[in-house]
Amino acid sequence: MAFRGLNTRYIPGNTTEDTTVLGQFIPKGTRIMGNIWAVHNDPKVWHKPQDFNPNRFLTSDGKELLKFDYFIPFSMGRRNCAGEGLARVEVFLYFVSLLQRYAISAANDGTVVSLVERFGLILQPTDAVLIIF
Ligand code: HEM
């Protein structure tokens, strides 16, 4: 019996054995991360995914939140975010506090997010985002 967690060559989140997914060979020890961006920007499941449109998450009367299998900001599966419950409460309190106290608008003709982005672990807008509080 092996205690993989105590094996110095085992890194949590890496594959523990050779495997094949949809014909793609993935050797043991490979770091696997879900491509959340691809899921959230898939036009097959989202209407105009690049548009900032919070209404897509609400019922037509705006009173209820809709749930979608393809909305996965905290990833999915066995390694999904361990802090999701806390994070959801934090984000809710943070934004409600801001919205209660400030009128928020975008400078420069209403464009908030630059269409040109810099790729990394996360996507960053290359232009400064100007928001007026
Ligand atoms: C809006 C806030 C947050 C977002 C969007 C977020 C998102 C994520 C994502 C996408 C992952 C990767 C899951 C994967 O590898 O498939 C992750 C992992 C993780 N998150 Fe978060 N997270 C947030 C806040 C937090 C907070 C507040 C905590 C702790 C208090 C936390 C703890 C963790 C831990 C421990 C993991 C690693 C889970 C594992 O590998 O088993 N996160 N998170």
Automatic annotation (TrEMBL):
GO biological process terms held by the UniProt record: organic acid metabolic process; xenobiotic metabolic process
A GO MF label: oxidoreductase activity, acting on paired donors, with incorporation or reduction of molecular oxygen, reduced flavin or flavoprotein as one donor, and incorporation of one atom of oxygen
Pfam families for the chain: p450 (PF00067)
Protein keywords: Heme, Iron, Metal-binding, Monooxygenase, Oxidoreductase
Gene3D superfamilies associated with the record: Cytochrome P450
GO cellular component annotations of the record: cytoplasm
Positions contributing to heme binding: C81
UniProt entry tagged with the keyword Oxidoreductase: yes
Cofactor(s) essential for the protein: heme
PANTHER family attached to this UniProt entry: CYTOCHROME P450 508A4-RELATED, CYTOCHROME P450 FAMILY
Family of this protein: Belongs to the cytochrome P450 family.
Protein's name according to its UniProt entry: Cytochrome P450
Protein species of origin: Oppiella nova
Taxonomy of the source species: Eukaryota, Metazoa, Ecdysozoa, Arthropoda, Chelicerata
